[in-house]
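If I may wish for something, please walk me through the protein I am sending here so I can picture the backbone:
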Amino acid sequence: PMGVVISMEQVPKRSIQTMIMKTSKLLSLIAAAALLAVSSLKLTAADASKEVTLTGNAVCAKCALHETKECQNVLQVEENGKTVNYYLAQNDTSKNFHDNICGTAGEKATVTGTVSEDNGKKTLTASKIDAAK
């Protein structure tokens, strides 16, 4: 069996133009999808770096909540009638405030920082913590 060879002269111009148009439409669609994916990633990163200020009851995750093996600050905030726990990342700001709450029932506090979420657990990276009045 011999293969069939077709020269470009045998292919109608209209089908070549159709192939070119379909290919360019497909490439445009792929480019648009890639642009959308990149812009949504940037949006997510911008949201994660946006600082928020939350007020609630600061407690120790180990001593008061018995949830961790090591001491860690947790800010308990009322949201829509439910208590939401924000686990404070272990940075200098958080560590410097910990003596105020460790071994106690907690203290009302206002925390400014960025929030991230992993598997439903909210982590608050504090840039400022004040005892609330």
Summary: The longest helix spans residues 13-48.
